[in-house]
Each structure stands twice: as structure tokens, then as C-alpha cells.
Amino acid sequence: MDRIKQLYHLVDESETPLPRAWSPVDKYQYISLSQNNLRAQYKGKGQSHKDAASVRATNPIPASCGLYYFEVKIVSKGRDGYMGIGLSIQGVSTNRLPGWDKYSYGYHGDDGHSFCSSGNGKTYGPTFTTDDVIGCAVNLMDGTCYYTKNGVNLGIAFTDLPANLYPTVGMQTVGEIIDANFGQAPFVYDIENDRRELVMQAVSRVDSYVIPDRHSHQSMLQKMIQSYLVHHGFSATAETFARSTGQEFTEDLVSIRNRQKIQRLVLAGRISEAIETTQRLYSGILEKDHNLLFRLKVRQFIEMIAGADSEVKNLRSPKVHGGSPSSTPLYGTSYTSPQSQSGGFLSNPGSFRRSRSRSKSPTVQQTHPSVIQSTRYANGKTEQSIAEVDGDVDMEGSQTNGQCSNGVQNGSSVLNGAGTSHTSMDVQGSAGKQLCGGTSAALEKTLTFGRELQAFSNQLKEKYGKNETNKKMIENAFSLIAYVDPWSSKAVGWQLEQSQREILGDILNSAIVENYRMPGRPPLEEALAHGCELGNLMIQSGNGIAAFLSVKGLLEQDS
Asked: What angle do helix axes 290-306 and 271-281 make, rounded to 10 degrees?
């Protein structure tokens, strides 16, 4: 992150870009720019005030800065040092020094006066000349401006400033040169100390606010905290908190602990177990939400690639070694079309479970044909079949193309095809991590799962129409196979991050909670989101105090 962004981290530059240089357009013709438009030099006649010239920065100062600051070094005062440093709105004449016209403000070096929208200056500070560094600070919380000279604060110069002011500098005599520092380099003045003081003032204003009917607000807050604890499955804490505040549960403790268990399975990457547990304990939830089930299955495929899901983690087949001509065949298993099976997955989503169930519950139909791994029982023996895919992913033999060395070509995974491949593979990843845990059996099972996941995608498309989100999701997941070391890939590695498990865990948990007719999102989180959005609206309206009162910042300070 660059220094300027660090100074103003709340500023969204996609909406309100920061001033970073002088504008090559918004300037008078007598101003010459160089050194990345940070140096300005006077090139005019310099005979009278009619020869004055100014230049504005590329962008106005965003209100979300809270406190904005820039410095100007006087490289040369030129002949007379008729120089002004300050602020102006867009449209103010650049054939004038800052401060002479309405909505223009400046501190001038030849006499040390401050000029506020007028040609008549007021005594303010010392004069400045060659090698001096003049700073200009804008407090967007109270609309004031103050200057510094060589690291010393000179006090308030202007009040009641309008919004959307641009840093501005003006010159009038031959040889005058200045260099601007908008934050690219360390400042001479310690502006961060001023910022810390403003934050303390803003927080103090919040703390001193008197809440009417405090008892009512406290009771509401306790309910919000209780619902948050229940929502996220903190059963023991929720039970203790409920007793101490005299509240009742809207969900029994057993259900809360069950949701917590499912959440832990997702966070551990054991998605197949999380799906099975959800279907067993909360029947109908995933059957009703086919997109959520699809998302879970895509995540299961990703976790199988990572070697975390129990479908592959518990396999103990010989490891796959790169370059071995006798590697175990990856795709030699015969398979049948899921459409040929009675009803298919969509008629019985519960069948989309792990065939190796740990549950003894009679509701788990282990004998039903599964899209992921169908199991047919005949004469007491189990025969495995793989759902045939007639989708968009091509299976070719292993070919090397750039980083692709796992039997994929141009990012398309080898998930759709029959026959036997004797391709060898090096599955060693970052820091000892291995694709599918580094075993050939796990790799084969993962690819089989991928083919059947594609079949599931095709079924959803046929029944419900196109879904761009699901399409992008499965494409991203399949692209992982194109990399020997997907963990270190900037293009696809993000899918293997813990944060992706957390997101999915929250989505699944919310779906279960909504089944109990409770909010899918805790009121406490809603209030937090509303607080953040209100802060953004305050900033957009030009209320600079919001830059010092971000909800996130206040929470971090309290912690």
C-alpha cells in the first residue's frame, strides 16, 4: 500500500480520488510542471499582479479524509517571492494568487498574510522564502484550515470552509519554483499527532452523548447480543448470558450445538460431513435450496483438491510420483448416465451424500443411487458407477502447457471422458501441500467427483435455466486442477483460503437459522452494517467527523 493510501485509508479512490499531483490542465499558462507534475515553476513576465498564475491539484479533497494535509517546499523564491499556498474550488481563476477571489484561500510568502476570498490580507504568520517547507491542513470535521512552517503549527487561518476544495499554489515573479508533497514522502510536520487528537475528540463526543430511557436501550442491546450468540452457535456463552439477563431461548440448546458442529466441519474443510450432518439433522433445508447444495458440493470438490475433505483425507493409497511410467490410471472407471438412474439427484437430493456415512440414522439412504458416487447392490456385492457427463469440460490426456501439468489443457480440467490414462503427475504443492493429499486413489476419486459435479450442474441448468453465479463457481473450482501448486497461484489460490470456508459456513448457518423463522442475519450484525452505511452517507454528504468515527475503528479501539 502506498503512503498516501495509508494516510487516508477510509477514502475509496474509485469514487473520490485523492490529490496526488498538480493538474496539467487546471493551471494558468505561465505555470510549467515537471517531476511527475509535483514541481511547479513560474514562466511568466512577472511585471504585475496581472501576471499571477496558479495551479490546482488533480482532485478535490475528499471529506472522508477527516484531516487532510500537504506540504510545499520553496525550491526558489525567485525575484520577489510573491507566492501563495492554499485552497480553491474548481472554476476560480488561475490568473490570480490563491485567496484573492471568492472561494479561494491562501497564505502568502512575501508578507505572511492570509487571504480569504479577498484581495485584502490579514496578519497571520511569518514570511517564507527559499528552502522553507509550508504545510496546509484542512480539518474536515469543523471546516477549518491551518498552516505549518518547517514543522511548526501556525494556528487557524480560515474557518467555515466549503466542500470540494483543491490544494492550490500560486506564483507571480520570475524564477519561483516549488515542490509539492501530497503524502508520497514523509512530512516535516507530525500531522498524525493532530489526527490522533481529533479522533479522541470525536470519540469523546460519542461517549458524552446522553441516551434517553437508558433501561429500554440496555434491554434491547441485551436481546441483540443474545440473538448473536444463538445465531453463531455459542451455546455455553448464550446459556450463561441468558441466565444473567433473564432472557429465554428461541431455539433449543441441542439445535444450537448441532449448528455449531456443522460450522466447525465447514471451517475444517470437511464439507461432505457437513452436508451429511445438515441433511440428517435439518431435513429439507438443502433439498429446498438447490443453489446452496450446489455451492456446498463445489466447495467439497475444492476441499478434495486441497486434501482436506474426509472423502480423500482418509484414503491411504500409494502416492503419485512425477515421471513414473507406471502411475495408477486416473480415469479408467466405467460410468453410467445419471439420467438413466430412476429419478436422479433432483428427485431425491438427499441421495447426494457420502457413500461412506458415519451416521446410523435410518433417514440416511445409503442404498439410493447417488449423483456423486452411485452404489448399486447386487448379490451382496457393491458395484461403483460414475455419472457420465455430457457437459462442457473436456478430458484429454496429460499435456504440458504453461503451468498445466495435471492432465488439463488451457484451464479445462480432465473431468469428462472415458478410457484409461497412464499419465504421471507431480502433486507436490506449497510448503509440502499436495493435491488431493498426494495419493492416486484420492486423485481419481476427486476427478470422478468433478465429473459428477458437472453432471449435477447440467441437471440444474436443464431444470432451472442458466445461473451465471453457479457457472462461474464451478469454472473457478475446476481451474484448480490446472496448477501443480494452486496454493501459490494468484489466479486461483484464493479459493483455498480459510476465508472462503468462513463465508460458506455463515451462509449455511443462516439457512438453518431461517428454517426456525429467525432472521438469517443477527440484528446485531444488521445494526453494525447500518452504522457503517450511515458513516458512508455522512462522508458523502461532506461531514468529515465520520472519518474519525468509523464503527470498525471504534470497535477496534474498545478491544
From this structure: 150
